[in-house]
Amino acid sequence: MDFSSKLLENAVNEVSRLPGIGKRTALRLVLHLLKQPKEHTSYLSNALLSLRNEVKTCEKCHNISDTVLCDICQNPKRNPEIVCVVEDIRDVMAIESTAQFQGLYHVLGGKISPIEGIGPQNLQIDSLVDKVSKGEIKELIFALSSTMEGDTTNFYIFKQIEKFGITTSTIARGIAVGDELEYADEVTLGRSILNRIPFENSLRN
Amino acid sequence: MDFSSKLLENAVNEVSRLPGIGKRTALRLVLHLLKQPKEHTSYLSNALLSLRNEVKTCEKCHNISDTVLCDICQNPKRNPEIVCVVEDIRDVMAIESTAQFQGLYHVLGGKISPIEGIGPQNLQIDSLVDKVSKGEIKELIFALSSTMEGDTTNFYIFKQIEKFGITTSTIARGIAVGDELEYADEVTLGRSILNRIPFENSLRN
Protein backbone atom coordinates (compact mmCIF):
# COMPACT_ATOMS: atom_id res chain seq x y z
CA MET A 1 0.00 0.00 0.00
CA ASP A 2 1.28 3.42 -0.96
CA PHE A 3 0.00 6.13 1.40
CA SER A 4 -0.04 9.83 0.65
CA SER A 5 0.63 10.61 4.32
CA LYS A 6 3.29 9.29 6.71
CA LEU A 7 0.96 9.96 9.66
CA LEU A 8 -1.73 7.84 8.05
CA GLU A 9 0.73 5.09 7.14
CA ASN A 10 2.07 5.01 10.68
CA ALA A 11 -1.41 4.80 12.23
CA VAL A 12 -2.46 2.02 9.81
CA ASN A 13 0.72 0.06 10.55
CA GLU A 14 0.17 0.26 14.31
CA VAL A 15 -3.51 -0.74 14.10
CA SER A 16 -2.73 -3.64 11.74
CA ARG A 17 -0.39 -5.13 14.37
CA LEU A 18 -3.48 -6.11 16.35
CA PRO A 19 -4.48 -9.76 15.88
CA GLY A 20 -6.92 -10.44 13.03
CA ILE A 21 -6.70 -6.89 11.66
CA GLY A 22 -5.13 -6.53 8.22
CA LYS A 23 -4.01 -3.37 6.46
CA ARG A 24 -7.35 -2.81 4.71
CA THR A 25 -9.37 -3.13 7.90
CA ALA A 26 -6.86 -0.90 9.72
CA LEU A 27 -7.23 1.76 7.00
CA ARG A 28 -11.03 1.57 7.30
CA LEU A 29 -10.89 1.99 11.09
CA VAL A 30 -8.42 4.88 10.91
CA LEU A 31 -10.44 6.70 8.22
CA HIS A 32 -13.49 6.28 10.44
CA LEU A 33 -11.65 8.02 13.30
CA LEU A 34 -10.73 10.88 10.95
CA LYS A 35 -14.41 11.42 10.19
CA GLN A 36 -15.34 11.54 13.90
CA PRO A 37 -14.75 14.47 16.29
CA LYS A 38 -11.20 14.64 17.68
CA GLU A 39 -12.44 13.66 21.16
CA HIS A 40 -13.24 10.13 19.99
CA THR A 41 -9.60 9.50 19.18
CA SER A 42 -8.35 10.98 22.43
CA TYR A 43 -10.87 8.98 24.50
CA LEU A 44 -9.76 5.81 22.71
CA SER A 45 -6.04 6.52 23.11
CA ASN A 46 -6.37 7.49 26.75
CA ALA A 47 -8.50 4.46 27.60
CA LEU A 48 -5.88 2.13 26.08
CA LEU A 49 -2.96 3.95 27.73
CA SER A 50 -4.48 4.05 31.21
CA LEU A 51 -5.51 0.40 30.99
CA ARG A 52 -2.02 -0.68 29.93
CA ASN A 53 -0.20 1.44 32.50
CA GLU A 54 -2.50 1.21 35.51
CA VAL A 55 -4.21 -2.16 35.41
CA LYS A 56 -3.22 -4.69 38.09
CA THR A 57 -3.66 -8.41 38.49
CA CYS A 58 -5.26 -9.70 41.66
CA GLU A 59 -2.58 -10.98 44.07
CA LYS A 60 -4.60 -14.03 44.93
CA CYS A 61 -6.32 -15.23 41.71
CA HIS A 62 -4.24 -13.30 39.11
CA ASN A 63 -7.35 -12.02 37.37
CA ILE A 64 -7.31 -8.49 35.86
CA SER A 65 -8.36 -6.03 38.55
CA ASP A 66 -8.16 -2.34 39.47
CA THR A 67 -7.31 -3.21 43.07
CA VAL A 68 -4.71 -5.42 44.79
CA LEU A 69 -7.39 -8.03 45.55
CA CYS A 70 -10.19 -8.46 43.00
CA ASP A 71 -13.88 -8.13 43.92
CA ILE A 72 -14.41 -11.89 43.80
CA CYS A 73 -11.49 -12.70 46.12
CA GLN A 74 -12.60 -9.89 48.47
CA ASN A 75 -16.18 -11.15 48.68
CA PRO A 76 -16.69 -12.83 52.10
CA LYS A 77 -19.74 -14.74 50.80
CA ARG A 78 -17.63 -16.81 48.39
CA ASN A 79 -16.17 -20.14 49.43
CA PRO A 80 -12.35 -19.95 49.27
CA GLU A 81 -12.01 -23.73 49.55
CA ILE A 82 -13.40 -24.40 46.07
CA VAL A 83 -11.19 -22.99 43.32
CA CYS A 84 -11.89 -23.05 39.60
CA VAL A 85 -8.80 -23.10 37.35
CA VAL A 86 -9.32 -21.06 34.17
CA GLU A 87 -7.22 -19.70 31.32
CA ASP A 88 -8.06 -15.99 31.35
CA ILE A 89 -10.54 -13.28 32.36
CA ARG A 90 -12.96 -14.23 29.56
CA ASP A 91 -13.53 -17.61 31.20
CA VAL A 92 -14.09 -15.94 34.58
CA MET A 93 -16.68 -13.64 32.96
CA ALA A 94 -18.37 -16.58 31.23
CA ILE A 95 -18.65 -18.63 34.43
CA GLU A 96 -19.71 -15.60 36.52
CA SER A 97 -22.54 -14.92 34.07
CA THR A 98 -24.04 -18.33 34.90
CA ALA A 99 -24.32 -17.35 38.63
CA GLN A 100 -23.82 -21.10 39.44
CA PHE A 101 -20.37 -20.91 41.02
CA GLN A 102 -19.71 -19.54 44.50
CA GLY A 103 -16.05 -20.43 44.92
CA LEU A 104 -12.95 -18.51 43.85
CA TYR A 105 -10.92 -18.60 40.63
CA HIS A 106 -7.31 -19.15 39.76
CA VAL A 107 -6.36 -17.53 36.43
CA LEU A 108 -3.40 -19.28 34.77
CA GLY A 109 -2.89 -16.63 32.08
CA GLY A 110 -2.77 -19.16 29.24
CA LYS A 111 -2.27 -22.84 28.49
CA ILE A 112 0.91 -24.90 28.10
CA SER A 113 1.68 -24.72 24.39
CA PRO A 114 5.15 -25.73 23.15
CA ILE A 115 4.27 -24.44 19.64
CA GLU A 116 3.70 -20.92 20.98
CA GLY A 117 6.65 -21.25 23.36
CA ILE A 118 4.47 -21.19 26.49
CA GLY A 119 5.78 -23.50 29.21
CA PRO A 120 4.59 -24.05 32.80
CA GLN A 121 7.02 -21.35 34.01
CA ASN A 122 5.11 -18.72 31.95
CA LEU A 123 1.84 -19.52 33.70
CA GLN A 124 0.56 -19.07 37.25
CA ILE A 125 1.03 -22.74 38.10
CA ASP A 126 3.58 -22.49 40.93
CA SER A 127 1.34 -20.13 42.90
CA LEU A 128 -1.56 -22.59 42.49
CA VAL A 129 0.52 -25.54 43.71
CA ASP A 130 1.66 -23.34 46.58
CA LYS A 131 -1.95 -22.60 47.59
CA VAL A 132 -2.83 -26.30 47.43
CA SER A 133 0.25 -27.32 49.47
CA LYS A 134 -0.77 -24.90 52.24
CA GLY A 135 -4.10 -26.72 52.59
CA GLU A 136 -6.16 -23.66 51.58
CA ILE A 137 -8.10 -25.56 48.91
CA LYS A 138 -10.40 -28.53 49.27
CA GLU A 139 -11.63 -28.89 45.68
CA LEU A 140 -10.01 -27.82 42.44
CA ILE A 141 -12.26 -27.60 39.36
CA PHE A 142 -10.43 -27.70 36.02
CA ALA A 143 -12.28 -25.49 33.51
CA LEU A 144 -9.77 -25.17 30.67
CA SER A 145 -10.96 -25.72 27.12
CA SER A 146 -10.73 -29.37 26.11
CA THR A 147 -8.05 -28.97 23.48
CA MET A 148 -4.65 -30.65 23.35
CA GLU A 149 -3.15 -27.65 25.20
CA GLY A 150 -5.95 -27.53 27.78
CA ASP A 151 -5.71 -31.27 28.52
CA THR A 152 -1.92 -31.06 28.78
CA THR A 153 -2.16 -28.16 31.23
CA ASN A 154 -4.80 -29.97 33.32
CA PHE A 155 -2.66 -33.09 33.46
CA TYR A 156 0.51 -31.18 34.32
CA ILE A 157 -1.20 -29.43 37.24
CA PHE A 158 -2.89 -32.66 38.36
CA LYS A 159 0.48 -34.44 38.55
CA GLN A 160 1.90 -31.59 40.69
CA ILE A 161 -0.93 -31.59 43.23
CA GLU A 162 -1.82 -35.32 43.24
CA LYS A 163 0.23 -35.92 46.40
CA PHE A 164 -1.81 -33.43 48.44
CA GLY A 165 -4.91 -35.61 48.06
CA ILE A 166 -7.50 -32.85 47.47
CA THR A 167 -10.66 -33.39 45.41
CA THR A 168 -10.22 -32.54 41.74
CA SER A 169 -12.97 -32.30 39.15
CA THR A 170 -13.46 -31.07 35.61
CA ILE A 171 -16.49 -29.34 34.15
CA ALA A 172 -18.96 -31.67 32.39
CA ARG A 173 -18.58 -32.14 28.63
CA GLY A 174 -21.73 -33.00 26.76
CA ILE A 175 -24.36 -31.95 24.29
CA ALA A 176 -25.19 -28.24 24.68
CA VAL A 177 -28.67 -27.43 25.96
CA GLY A 178 -30.94 -27.03 22.93
CA ASP A 179 -28.61 -28.86 20.50
CA GLU A 180 -29.71 -31.70 18.23
CA LEU A 181 -28.00 -35.05 18.87
CA GLU A 182 -27.54 -35.81 15.18
CA TYR A 183 -25.21 -32.83 14.72
CA ALA A 184 -23.03 -33.53 17.78
CA ASP A 185 -19.52 -34.87 17.22
CA GLU A 186 -18.98 -38.48 18.31
CA VAL A 187 -16.40 -37.68 21.02
CA THR A 188 -18.75 -35.27 22.81
CA LEU A 189 -21.73 -37.59 22.42
CA GLY A 190 -19.66 -40.56 23.60
CA ARG A 191 -18.53 -38.68 26.72
CA SER A 192 -22.04 -37.48 27.45
CA ILE A 193 -23.25 -41.11 27.49
CA LEU A 194 -20.34 -42.36 29.64
CA ASN A 195 -20.83 -39.49 32.10
CA ARG A 196 -24.62 -39.65 32.22
CA ILE A 197 -26.27 -38.20 35.34
CA PRO A 198 -29.31 -39.29 37.40
CA PHE A 199 -32.46 -37.94 35.68
CA GLU A 200 -33.60 -36.15 38.87
CA ASN A 201 -30.42 -34.04 38.75
CA SER A 202 -31.31 -32.72 35.30
CA LEU A 203 -34.48 -31.20 36.76
CA ARG A 204 -32.57 -28.85 39.03
CA ASN A 205 -31.97 -26.02 36.61
CA MET B 1 -20.66 -8.16 29.96
CA ASP B 2 -19.58 -7.79 33.57
CA PHE B 3 -15.96 -6.70 33.86
CA SER B 4 -13.81 -7.06 36.95
CA SER B 5 -11.99 -3.80 36.10
CA LYS B 6 -13.31 -0.34 35.22
CA LEU B 7 -10.16 0.37 33.23
CA LEU B 8 -10.74 -2.75 31.15
CA GLU B 9 -14.42 -1.97 30.68
CA ASN B 10 -13.62 1.55 29.54
CA ALA B 11 -11.01 0.39 27.02
CA VAL B 12 -13.35 -2.29 25.63
CA ASN B 13 -16.17 0.26 25.29
CA GLU B 14 -13.98 2.72 23.38
CA VAL B 15 -12.58 0.06 21.02
CA SER B 16 -16.05 -1.36 20.34
CA ARG B 17 -17.19 2.07 19.06
CA LEU B 18 -15.11 1.42 15.95
CA PRO B 19 -17.18 0.17 13.00
CA GLY B 20 -17.50 -3.60 12.69
CA ILE B 21 -15.93 -4.26 16.12
CA GLY B 22 -18.20 -5.77 18.75
CA LYS B 23 -17.58 -6.14 22.47
CA ARG B 24 -16.08 -9.61 22.19
CA THR B 25 -13.62 -8.60 19.47
CA ALA B 26 -12.76 -5.45 21.43
CA LEU B 27 -12.03 -7.55 24.52
CA ARG B 28 -9.80 -9.86 22.47
CA LEU B 29 -7.84 -6.90 21.06
CA VAL B 30 -7.46 -5.22 24.46
CA LEU B 31 -6.32 -8.47 26.15
CA HIS B 32 -3.78 -8.86 23.34
CA LEU B 33 -2.38 -5.39 24.13
CA LEU B 34 -2.10 -6.36 27.81
CA LYS B 35 0.09 -9.34 26.88
CA GLN B 36 2.40 -7.18 24.75
CA PRO B 37 5.12 -4.83 26.07
CA LYS B 38 3.81 -1.43 27.19
CA GLU B 39 5.49 0.29 24.22
CA HIS B 40 3.05 -1.34 21.77
CA THR B 41 0.13 0.43 23.40
CA SER B 42 1.91 3.78 23.54
CA TYR B 43 3.02 3.52 19.88
CA LEU B 44 -0.58 2.74 18.89
CA SER B 45 -2.09 5.55 20.97
CA ASN B 46 0.45 8.09 19.82
CA ALA B 47 0.08 7.13 16.16
CA LEU B 48 -3.69 7.61 16.36
CA LEU B 49 -3.43 10.88 18.28
CA SER B 50 -0.85 12.47 16.00
CA LEU B 51 -2.77 11.39 12.90
CA ARG B 52 -6.02 12.85 14.21
CA ASN B 53 -4.47 16.11 15.43
CA GLU B 54 -1.86 16.81 12.75
CA VAL B 55 -3.15 15.39 9.48
CA LYS B 56 -4.13 17.88 6.77
CA THR B 57 -6.16 17.62 3.63
CA CYS B 58 -4.56 18.83 0.39
CA GLU B 59 -5.86 22.32 -0.46
CA LYS B 60 -6.30 21.39 -4.10
CA CYS B 61 -7.60 17.80 -4.25
CA HIS B 62 -8.74 17.38 -0.59
CA ASN B 63 -6.87 14.09 -0.25
CA ILE B 64 -5.30 13.24 3.13
CA SER B 65 -1.80 14.68 3.19
CA ASP B 66 0.97 15.72 5.60
CA THR B 67 1.60 18.93 3.62
CA VAL B 68 -0.58 21.79 2.35
CA LEU B 69 -0.40 20.41 -1.19
CA CYS B 70 -0.22 16.61 -1.57
CA ASP B 71 2.58 14.85 -3.47
CA ILE B 72 0.36 14.18 -6.48
CA CYS B 73 -0.81 17.80 -6.84
CA GLN B 74 2.80 19.00 -6.38
CA ASN B 75 4.17 16.66 -9.06
CA PRO B 76 4.97 18.76 -12.20
CA LYS B 77 4.87 15.65 -14.42
CA ARG B 78 1.15 15.13 -13.82
CA ASN B 79 -1.44 16.65 -16.15
CA PRO B 80 -3.62 19.09 -14.15
CA GLU B 81 -6.19 19.29 -16.97
CA ILE B 82 -7.46 15.73 -16.44
CA VAL B 83 -9.12 15.25 -13.07
CA CYS B 84 -10.47 12.01 -11.65
CA VAL B 85 -13.38 12.39 -9.18
CA VAL B 86 -13.21 9.81 -6.37
CA GLU B 87 -14.87 9.19 -3.03
CA ASP B 88 -11.90 8.90 -0.67
CA ILE B 89 -8.21 8.17 -0.28
CA ARG B 90 -8.73 4.43 -0.76
CA ASP B 91 -9.86 5.05 -4.34
CA VAL B 92 -6.84 7.28 -4.96
CA MET B 93 -4.57 4.52 -3.67
CA ALA B 94 -6.33 1.90 -5.83
CA ILE B 95 -6.01 3.97 -9.02
CA GLU B 96 -2.41 4.99 -8.23
CA SER B 97 -1.47 1.33 -7.85
CA THR B 98 -2.42 0.74 -11.53
CA ALA B 99 0.12 3.40 -12.67
CA GLN B 100 -2.24 4.08 -15.62
CA PHE B 101 -3.42 7.57 -14.65
CA GLN B 102 -1.27 10.68 -14.99
CA GLY B 103 -3.82 13.36 -14.15
CA LEU B 104 -4.86 14.76 -10.78
CA TYR B 105 -7.61 13.72 -8.37
CA HIS B 106 -10.52 15.43 -6.69
CA VAL B 107 -11.55 13.70 -3.44
CA LEU B 108 -15.22 14.31 -2.58
CA GLY B 109 -15.05 12.83 0.91
CA GLY B 110 -18.12 10.65 0.42
CA LYS B 111 -21.20 10.18 -1.75
CA ILE B 112 -24.59 11.87 -1.62
CA SER B 113 -26.67 9.63 0.66
CA PRO B 114 -29.95 10.94 2.08
CA ILE B 115 -30.23 7.84 4.30
CA GLU B 116 -26.95 8.67 6.04
CA GLY B 117 -27.77 12.39 6.03
CA ILE B 118 -24.99 13.27 3.58
CA GLY B 119 -26.01 16.03 1.15
CA PRO B 120 -23.99 17.88 -1.53
CA GLN B 121 -23.07 20.56 1.04
CA ASN B 122 -21.18 17.93 3.11
CA LEU B 123 -18.96 16.99 0.17
CA GLN B 124 -16.24 18.81 -1.78
CA ILE B 125 -18.55 19.52 -4.72
CA ASP B 126 -18.55 23.36 -4.70
CA SER B 127 -14.76 23.47 -4.89
CA LEU B 128 -14.87 21.08 -7.88
CA VAL B 129 -17.47 23.20 -9.71
CA ASP B 130 -15.31 26.22 -8.91
CA LYS B 131 -12.24 24.61 -10.51
CA VAL B 132 -14.26 23.68 -13.61
CA SER B 133 -15.77 27.18 -13.91
CA LYS B 134 -12.26 28.71 -13.90
CA GLY B 135 -11.36 26.63 -16.96
CA GLU B 136 -8.62 24.70 -15.14
CA ILE B 137 -9.99 21.31 -16.17
CA LYS B 138 -10.43 19.84 -19.66
CA GLU B 139 -11.64 16.35 -18.79
CA LEU B 140 -13.41 15.07 -15.70
CA ILE B 141 -13.38 11.30 -15.08
CA PHE B 142 -16.08 10.02 -12.72
CA ALA B 143 -14.71 7.08 -10.75
CA LEU B 144 -17.30 6.66 -7.99
CA SER B 145 -18.62 3.19 -7.23
CA SER B 146 -21.65 2.36 -9.40
CA THR B 147 -24.19 2.20 -6.60
CA MET B 148 -27.35 4.26 -6.22
CA GLU B 149 -25.39 6.84 -4.17
CA GLY B 150 -22.46 6.90 -6.60
CA ASP B 151 -24.73 7.36 -9.64
CA THR B 152 -26.69 10.11 -7.84
CA THR B 153 -23.49 11.95 -6.96
CA ASN B 154 -22.14 11.62 -10.52
CA PHE B 155 -25.40 12.97 -11.94
CA TYR B 156 -25.59 15.85 -9.45
CA ILE B 157 -22.06 16.99 -10.33
CA PHE B 158 -22.68 16.47 -14.06
CA LYS B 159 -25.74 18.75 -13.93
CA GLN B 160 -23.69 21.46 -12.16
CA ILE B 161 -20.82 21.46 -14.67
CA GLU B 162 -22.74 20.66 -17.86
CA LYS B 163 -22.87 24.33 -18.89
CA PHE B 164 -19.09 24.67 -18.96
CA GLY B 165 -18.88 22.16 -21.81
CA ILE B 166 -15.83 20.16 -20.68
CA THR B 167 -15.30 16.50 -21.56
CA THR B 168 -16.73 14.12 -18.98
CA SER B 169 -16.16 10.38 -18.84
CA THR B 170 -16.71 7.51 -16.48
CA ILE B 171 -14.48 4.51 -15.88
CA ALA B 172 -15.38 1.42 -17.94
CA ARG B 173 -17.67 -1.14 -16.32
CA GLY B 174 -17.28 -4.69 -17.55
CA ILE B 175 -16.17 -8.20 -16.79
CA ALA B 176 -13.06 -8.23 -14.58
CA VAL B 177 -9.88 -9.56 -16.19
CA GLY B 178 -9.69 -13.29 -15.48
CA ASP B 179 -13.41 -13.64 -14.64
CA GLU B 180 -15.70 -16.26 -16.18
CA LEU B 181 -18.62 -14.85 -18.24
CA GLU B 182 -21.11 -17.34 -16.83
CA TYR B 183 -20.72 -15.94 -13.29
CA ALA B 184 -21.04 -12.27 -14.28
CA ASP B 185 -24.24 -10.42 -13.37
CA GLU B 186 -26.43 -9.47 -16.32
CA VAL B 187 -26.15 -5.68 -15.85
CA THR B 188 -22.35 -5.77 -15.96
CA LEU B 189 -22.29 -8.20 -18.89
CA GLY B 190 -24.90 -6.11 -20.74
CA ARG B 191 -22.88 -2.93 -20.27
CA SER B 192 -19.68 -4.63 -21.35
CA ILE B 193 -21.33 -5.64 -24.66
CA LEU B 194 -22.85 -2.18 -25.26
CA ASN B 195 -19.52 -0.49 -24.51
CA ARG B 196 -17.33 -2.93 -26.43
CA ILE B 197 -13.96 -1.64 -27.62
CA PRO B 198 -11.92 -2.22 -30.80
CA PHE B 199 -10.00 -5.49 -30.45
CA GLU B 200 -6.65 -3.77 -31.13
CA ASN B 201 -7.17 -1.62 -28.03
CA SER B 202 -7.41 -4.70 -25.83
CA LEU B 203 -3.86 -5.64 -26.84
CA ARG B 204 -2.35 -2.52 -25.26
CA ASN B 205 -1.94 -3.79 -21.73
Automatic annotation (TrEMBL), chains A, B:
A zinc finger (C4-type) spans 58-73. Pfam families: RecR_C, RecR_HhH, RecR_ZnF, Toprim_4. Keywords: DNA damage, DNA recombination, DNA repair, Metal-binding, Zinc, Zinc-finger. Residues 81-176 form the Toprim domain. May play a role in DNA repair. It seems to be involved in an RecBC-independent recombinational process of DNA repair. It may act with RecF and RecO. Belongs to the RecR family. This is Recombination protein RecR. It comes from Polaribacter marinivivus.
